């Protein structure tokens, strides 16, 4: 228990708080659940953002439109975000380069806000063509990474996630499980990788912060005073 | 110097100057900034208010044609027509406004008659309208040709299928309630019930079915049993698809011909176009709300980091104000330069705030508060600014760069966003520099003032006798202040311990966060808000009306002359007030139906017929639709799945229709059930009818009815809330019976009121009877121990040596009277003899059977006949013995003379006689073994104090004891006179002394035969102890029982001990040395000159001078691991690296002096004058938690092991788990010590704790700890 603790977050920073209360697995589970919920919530909200253009003023089924996409999409997003959020601190640890850049909740909140903003822009702003949209979103995503992450592992993982997720979506669409209203590039929207990249960075940020939070419990509390 | 460095320096200097400026002239700068903000926001006034209220535009009816779809005529007068006025409207709405009354009103008419027959006329009117056909040259046109044909209702509205028309013209009238079937109406016994059957039960009444069909607001319709105005008004609403002027004119003319309105002043000149904005649906609301939640979380997490300032909330507010006003300025400036915002402000606002961010503000705050506190405010601000100048500039530049990149995406929306953001960033920077910095300087200044005020009282009551910055424990205890219980003020809740059951923890969590109360409060607020907003008479309509009125286009539509109805008589000749519609020809017979205006009619008793209400048409009737909910039309059209969002409708001028019915018609239309007094006739007496006349526009019955409902609901909600709160209170009381969460408990903690931790968890209370060491008469000042022995010294100057295991008093060294007179060696013997004497006295027959040390407890009531009581006298009568002994006769028998006699060197003769006597006693005493003393000697010895207590021990030139150290069996005493004395603890004899310097010894270190004395004048003396005979381990110990092996060598006093001054550091510090500690071959001194010095013990060589405190150093800690910690009067704790002399960390710990400081392997424990004990993480310097101490017990703490902390309280000691901050146990130390606070705690090696309760010492063994340690 104790060694798990120290392994988790370095011997210096952590008091023995966690070790006595939660074992590492419980810890992991709590974090996973939190990340899952965040993922589901974001998926629902962003989905709504994407479809709201087609919603009439007084639709009879407003609530239904929230769940208008397939039922399995939010859980999938949740699971993915849980995996990503747990993967980031794990990789940080294995690479031995702990993430030190802007590790604060306010920064994480900023990151989430920018992520939602990117989605918002992709949904609402009228672009001339898809290339412009994709380029803009790519620039925004890289900007997000630069502003809030700046770690090589974060970038690599983000790119990997974007690639994988796009591939999965591609496969799904190809098999007709899921469909977009207006695919512009090989059955998928071309901006999808950017969104996935930004989402990966965001969830990784949250996951890192959650992992850090255990150690920083003390600090946070004392800051509150 | 590279360019970057040059730039950096320049920026830094500029910021420094700017900081000085800001802090020097705060008020003018804030005023200037405020002016700037107002000036920049001024263009915002031109912008339309954001809102979803409809916008109006009025065009004259004459030669109206629908605007073309293609807005190519824009170059004409762009300001004249709004942008949305393009293309044909969704629909033209023609309202036919029917006002109807039964007149003359007959006395035996029922209340139902007011509206039954008028409503029945609606069917006839609808028939007329439906059958209206325009025949002209182009052919015939019926209503069906021009009206808006509607299809199905929305699937969710099936219950309205009977009421609202489907598959045909959209024509609404009250007749729709009865499917436009007159027979149904006549067969309906309960008209009101039918009308209200579709009314929603809730209060959400934005546009109900009744409003839709009646076309007038509910309170104007007059269809009520309680109306006082017997006039019914309703509209028949026709919706046209296209504007057919001829058809409409024809219809209007015909209706006005058929039902003339005599005194109608409606102008019917203008066509009002109402444009509806896009409404925010739930689907859009959820993402919006999400972004706002994220925004607030961001602001919360950001402002939470503001620390160490006077008013956190104030600064947080200032930060938010900075960001918000910079955004406003940004929009204002952009508007000023001609950019019209097209983005939805509410949507992009959170993103703008996030982009601009609060980071710089926080960085600024942090930088400023981490500057040295003792600097002037101006300089602090300036330094803080210049420290962070580079990073702030870099940040701003980076953000500007990123945003500029965004500007080149060439997407209009993003460009606009970026433009706003850039201007916002610049204005934010401006505001940060001017506004926030100034606010910060004001805040810091306030904090300094507050600190000053807070620190003053404890300093003011410091004793003047002691110039040292010692802890003012005794003085502070007298200050009256409500003591606070032991609470750990800060704790991570969930990670702490598992001692409590989960259920209780949940409950405590709920109770601690007041979650339920807060939820209820929030819910109530939201609910009230919803009520206020959605109420038809509430905010929403008001706002809508405001918006409508404020829109400049709508104003023209309003009638300028507010003519109240009723004052306009029918035959009023003034054309200015009665402008009749020009087109309908006025029939002649309308004059006959006119009556005289009622005027002020008194109570018309006995008059069977009262005149009916005057049907008047005022200008307000023209715009009656304005009084409808602004959702009226969108609701109506949404029923047919037609959205009005971003489209407009045109309202044609209403067609007034006046229906006059005589009582006969009213009676004819009556339903048989109406008469069955289902509703008693209104106005049973003439007084009522009179009232009707005089007050025809009284509050409508429905309005009162609705108000009552509102009040009922409000009262119900209030009651429910109260009940819930009470319930919660009960729950809270039941579940949290302990007095947790009441920080300001009055008075000191009573017995049974337990100290408890965060959860209100109070550990099992235990009470043990400690070994009370009594013997001092005044408060104990100094305590020292080496684990086996315990030395204490009280204010009166007595030194007692106790056995730390048994609590026996081994030796008492009284206050020396004439130390100067007696030689060093001789005193030693005399002291020893006195010791024997006192021992003998204790064992005397008077108190036979009691072992000497325990007698101390029972000796109180005895007459002062023993030597042991002499200290009592000494402190009671505190005179200068050395002066008096010469003046007074030799009668008083005191130990000091005897001592002198013992040593056989009495300087003055008077004392000499007496000393002889004592010497004899002493010799006699020595002969027999101690338990059996001869009576005579005992009596002799006992007699001595009775002779006169007056010349007792006095504060001699020796001065009081300021410091005390104990090692082995040697006690080192430092006196205020600068005299250093080494006493034998067991024998009680003075081994040697040294008084070269007359400056008082403020601190002592006795380590390995080396004594270091720190003096008041800042010098440092190193002594070494030399024994001429080899020191042999001492055999005699008070109680050999459970002693552990003594840590230091115990020297027997048999050999001659000499104390030699080896080295003197004459000016180690400029000011008195206040703290002195030695460990690991290093000696650390802390002084009032704000510095610390580190010396090597062997060669007294000064290694480092440590500067970092901004106040006098009050306490120093060093241990074998070379960790050096120091605390100062500035409330700061510094951790140093002894090897390099560098400061490892610096933390502001206390408000007020740091009084004591200890370190364990993982944490630093500090206590301050603020009665707080704070526990810090040693490596990260993060405060883990703090413990609020009882008043006066601030400095009483001790560390037993690495994870066990002892603190003292009122008559008790508490044990804390250091790692978790848990209160483990509170031990009450007997009843007698209840009122006394434990001022000092000394932890001995064998887990005994010595607490200092005033003049008593309590020796506590901790059984659990003993087990743990052994």
UniProtKB/TrEMBL annotation, chain A:
Its main location: endoplasmic reticulum. Interacts with SCAP; interaction is direct and only takes place in the presence of sterols; it prevents interaction between SCAP and the coat protein complex II (COPII). Associates with the SCAP-SREBP complex (composed of SCAP and SREBF1/SREBP1 or SREBF2/SREBP2); association is mediated via its interaction with SCAP and only takes place in the presence of sterols. Interacts with RNF139. Interacts with RNF145. Keywords: Cholesterol metabolism, Endoplasmic reticulum, Lipid metabolism, Lipid-binding, Membrane, Steroid metabolism, Sterol metabolism, Transmembrane, Transmembrane helix. It comes from Echinops telfairi. The chain crosses the membrane at residues 28-49, 69-88, 131-148, 155-174, 186-206. Pfam families: INSIG (PF07281). Mediates feedback control of cholesterol synthesis. Signal peptide: none annotated. It is a multi-pass membrane protein. It is found in: Endoplasmic reticulum membrane. This is Insulin-induced gene protein. Belongs to the INSIG family. The keyword Protein transport does not apply.
TrEMBL record, chain B:
PROSITE patterns: SSD, WD_REPEATS_1, WD_REPEATS_2, WD_REPEATS_REGION. It is found in: Cytoplasmic vesicle, COPII-coated vesicle membrane; Endoplasmic reticulum membrane; Golgi apparatus membrane. The chain crosses the membrane at residues 20-45, 280-301, 313-339, 351-375, 396-414, 713-735. Residues 574-618, 834-910, 928-954 are annotated as: Disordered. Belongs to the WD repeat SCAP family. This is Sterol regulatory element-binding protein cleavage-activating protein. Escort protein required for cholesterol as well as lipid homeostasis. Regulates export of the SCAP-SREBP complex from the endoplasmic reticulum to the Golgi upon low cholesterol, thereby regulating the processing of sterol regulatory element-binding proteins (SREBPs) SREBF1/SREBP1 and SREBF2/SREBP2. At high sterol concentrations, formation of a ternary complex with INSIG (INSIG1 or INSIG2) leads to mask the ER export signal in SCAP, promoting retention of the complex in the endoplasmic reticulum. WD repeats lie at residues 1106-1146. PANTHER family: STEROL REGULATORY ELEMENT-BINDING PROTEIN CLEAVAGE-ACTIVATING PROTEIN (PTHR46378:SF1).
């Amino acid at each position: 228990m104790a060694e798990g603790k120290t392994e988790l977050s370095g011997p210096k920073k952590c008091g023995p708080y966690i070790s006595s209360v939660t074992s590492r697995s419980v810890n992991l589970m709590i974090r996973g659940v939190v990340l899952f919920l965040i993922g589901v919530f974001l998926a629902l909200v962003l989905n709504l953002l994407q479809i709201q253009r087609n919603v009439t003023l007084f639709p009879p089924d407003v609530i239904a439109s929230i769940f208008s996409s397939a039922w399995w999409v939010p859980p999938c997003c949740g699971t993915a975000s849980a995996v990503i959020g747990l993967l980031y601190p794990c990789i940080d640890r294995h690479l031995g380069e702990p993430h030190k850049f802007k590790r604060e909740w306010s920064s994480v909140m900023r990151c989430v806000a920018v992520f939602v903003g990117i989605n918002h822009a992709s949904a609402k702003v009228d672009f001339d063509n898809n290339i412009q949209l994709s380029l803009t979103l790519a620039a925004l995503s890289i900007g997000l990474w630069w502003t809030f992450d700046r770690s090589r592992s974060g970038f690599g993982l983000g790119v990997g996630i974007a690639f994988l997720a796009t591939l999965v979506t591609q496969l799904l669409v190809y098999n007709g499980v899921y469909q977009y209203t207006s695919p512009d590039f090989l059955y998928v929207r071309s901006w999808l990788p950017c969104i996935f990249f930004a989402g990966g960075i965001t969830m990784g940020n949250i996951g890192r912060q959650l992992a850090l939070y255990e150690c920083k419990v003390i600090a946070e509390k004392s800051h509150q005073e | 110097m590279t360019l970057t460095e040059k730039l950096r320096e320049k920026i830094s200097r500029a910021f420094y100057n700017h900081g000085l400026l800001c802090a020097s002239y705060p008020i003018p700068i804030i005023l200037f900034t405020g002016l700037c903000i107002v000036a920049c926001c001024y263009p915002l006034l031109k912008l339309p208010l954001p809102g979803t209220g409809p916008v109006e535009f009025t065009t004259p009816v004459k030669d109206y044609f629908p605007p073309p779809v293609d807005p190519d005529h824009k170059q004409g007068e762009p300001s004249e027509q709004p942008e949305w006025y393009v293309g044909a409207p969704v629909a033209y709405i023609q309202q036919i406004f029917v006002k109807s009354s039964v007149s003359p009103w007959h006395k035996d008419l029922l209340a139902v008659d007011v509206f039954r027959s008028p409503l029945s006329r609606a069917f006839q009117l609808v028939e007329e309208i439906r059958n209206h056909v325009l025949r002209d040259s182009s052919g015939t046109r019926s209503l069906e040709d021009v009206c808006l044909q509607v299809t199905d209702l929305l699937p969710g509205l099936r219950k309205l299928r009977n009421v609202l028309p489907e598959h045909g013209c959209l024509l609404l009238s009250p007749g729709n309630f009865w499917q436009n079937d007159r027979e149904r109406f006549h067969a309906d016994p309960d008209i009101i019930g039918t009308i209200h059957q579709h009314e929603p039960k809730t209060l959400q009444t934005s546009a109900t079915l009744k409003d839709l069909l009646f076309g007038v607001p509910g309170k104007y319709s007059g269809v009520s049993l309680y109306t006082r105005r017997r006039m019914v008004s309703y509209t028949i609403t026709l919706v046209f698809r296209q504007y057919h002027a001829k058809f409409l004119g024809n219809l209007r003319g015909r209706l006005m011909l058929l039902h003339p309105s005599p005194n109608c002043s409606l102008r019917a000149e203008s066509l009002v176009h109402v444009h509806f904005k896009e409404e925010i649906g739930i689907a859009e609301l959820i993402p919006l709300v999400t972004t706002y939640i994220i925004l607030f979380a961001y602001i919360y997490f950001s402002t939470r980091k503001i620390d160490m300032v006077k008013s956190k909330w104030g600064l947080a507010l200032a930060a938010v104000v900075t960001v918000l006003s910079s955004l406003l300025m940004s929009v204002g400036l952009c508007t000023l330069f001609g950019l019209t915002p097209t983005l939805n402000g509410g949507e992009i606002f959170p993103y703008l705030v996030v982009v601009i961010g609060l980071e710089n503000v926080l960085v600024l705050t942090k930088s400023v508060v981490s500057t040295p506190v003792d600097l002037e405010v101006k300089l602090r601000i300036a330094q803080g600014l210049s420290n962070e100048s580079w990073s702030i500039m870099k940040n701003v530049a980076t953000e500007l760069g990123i945003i500029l990149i965004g500007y080149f995406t060439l997407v209009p929306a993003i460009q606009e966003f970026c433009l706003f953001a850039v201007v916002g960033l610049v204005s934010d920077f401006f505001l940060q520099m001017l506004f926030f910095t100034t606010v910060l300087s004001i805040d810091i200044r306030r904090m300094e003032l507050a600190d000053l005020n807070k620190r003053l009282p404890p300093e003011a009551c410091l004793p003047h006798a002691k110039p040292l910055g010692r802890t003012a424990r005794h003085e502070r205890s007298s200050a009256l202040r409500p003591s606070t219980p032991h609470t750990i003020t800060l704790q991570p809740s969930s990670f702490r311990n598992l001692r409590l059951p989960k259920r209780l923890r949940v409950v405590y969590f709920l109770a601690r966060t007041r979650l339920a109360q807060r939820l209820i409060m929030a819910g109530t607020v939201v609910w009230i808000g919803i009520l206020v907003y959605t109420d038809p008479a509430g905010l929403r309509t008001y706002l809508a009306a405001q918006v409508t009125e404020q829109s400049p286009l709508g104003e023209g539509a309003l009638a300028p002359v507010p003519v109240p109805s009723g004052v306009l008589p029918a035959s009023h000749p003034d054309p200015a007030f009665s402008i009749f519609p020009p087109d309908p020809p006025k029939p002649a017979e309308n004059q006959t139906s006119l009556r005289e205006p009622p005027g002020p009619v008194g109570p018309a008793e006995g008059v069977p017929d009262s005149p009916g209400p005057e049907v008047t048409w005022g200008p307000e009737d023209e715009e009656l639709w304005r009084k409808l909910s602004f959702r009226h039309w969108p609701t109506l059209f949404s029923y047919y799945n037609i959205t009005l969002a971003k489209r407009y409708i045109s309202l044609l001028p209403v067609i007034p229709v006046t229906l006059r019915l005589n009582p006969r018609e009213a009676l004819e239309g009556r339903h048989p059930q109406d008469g069955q007094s289902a509703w008693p006739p209104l106005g049973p007496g003439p007084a009522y009818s009179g009232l009707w006349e005089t007050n025809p526009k009284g509050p409508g019955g429905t309005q009162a009815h609705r108000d009552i409902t509102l009040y009922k609901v409000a009262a119900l909600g209030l009651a429910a809330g109260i009940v819930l709160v009470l319930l919660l209170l009960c729950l809270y009381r039941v579940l949290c019976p302990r007095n947790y969460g009441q920080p300001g408990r009055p008075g000191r903690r009573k017995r049974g009121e337990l100290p408890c931790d965060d959860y209100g968890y109070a550990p099992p209370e235990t009470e043990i009877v400690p070994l009370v060491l009594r013997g001092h008469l005044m408060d104990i000042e100094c305590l020292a121990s080496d684990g086996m022995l315990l030395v204490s010294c009280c204010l009166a100057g007595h030194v007692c040596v106790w056995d730390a295991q048994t609590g026996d008093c081994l030796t008492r060294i009284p206050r020396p009277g004439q130390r100067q007179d007696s030689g060093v060696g001789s005193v030693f013997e005399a002291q020893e003899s006195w010791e024997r004497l006192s021992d003998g006295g204790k064992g005397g027959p008077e108190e036979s059977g009691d072992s000497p040390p325990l007698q101390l407890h029972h000796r109180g009531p005895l007459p002062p006949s023993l030597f042991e009581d002499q200290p009592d006298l000494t402190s009671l009568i505190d005179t200068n013995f050395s002066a008096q002994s010469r003046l007074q006769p030799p009668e008083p028998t005191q130990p000091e003379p005897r001592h002198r006699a013992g040593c056989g060197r009495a300087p003055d003769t008077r004392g000499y006689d007496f000393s002889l006597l004592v010497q004899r006693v002493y010799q006699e005493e020595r002969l027999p073994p101690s338990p059996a003393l001869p009576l005579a000697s005992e009596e002799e010895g006992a007699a001595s104090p009775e002779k006169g207590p007056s010349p007792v021990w006095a504060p001699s030139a020796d001065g009081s004891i300021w410091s005390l150290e104990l090692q082995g069996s040697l006690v080192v005493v430092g006196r205020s006179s600068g005299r250093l004395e080494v006493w034998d603890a067991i024998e009680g004899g003075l081994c040697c002394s040294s008084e070269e310097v007359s400056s008082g010894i403020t601190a002592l270190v006795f380590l390995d035969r080396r004594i270091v004395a720190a003096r008041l004048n800042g010098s440092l003396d190193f002594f070494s102890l030399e024994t001429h005979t080899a020191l042999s381990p001492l055999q005699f110990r008070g109680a050999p029982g459970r002693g552990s092996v003594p840590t230091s060598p115990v020297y027997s006093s048999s050999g001659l001990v000499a104390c030699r001054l080896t080295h003197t550091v004459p000016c180690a510090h400029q000011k008195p040395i206040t703290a002195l500690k030695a460990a690991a071959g290093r000696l650390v001194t802390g002084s009032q000159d704000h510095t610390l010095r580190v010396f090597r013990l062997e060669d007294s060589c000064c290694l480092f001078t440590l500067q970092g405190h901004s106040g006098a150093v009050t306490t120093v800690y060093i241990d074998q691991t070379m960790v050096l910690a120091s605390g100062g009067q500035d409330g700061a704790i510094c951790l140093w690296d002894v090897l390099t002399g560098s400061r490892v960390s610096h933390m502001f710990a206390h408000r007020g002096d740091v009084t004591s400081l200890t370190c364990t392997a993982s944490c630093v424990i500090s206590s301050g004058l603020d009665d707080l004990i704070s526990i810090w993480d040693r490596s990260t310097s993060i405060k883990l938690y703090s413990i609020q101490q009882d008043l006066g017990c601030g400095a009483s703490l001790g560390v037993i092991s690495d994870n066990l902390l002892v603190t003292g309280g009122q008559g008790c000691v508490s044990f804390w788990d250091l790692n978790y901050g848990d209160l483990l146990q509170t031990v009450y130390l007997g009843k007698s010590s209840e009122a006394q606070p434990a001022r000092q705690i000394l932890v001995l090696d064998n887990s005994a704790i010595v607490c200092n309760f005033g003049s008593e010492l309590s020796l506590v063994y901790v059984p659990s700890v003993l087990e743990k340690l052994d």
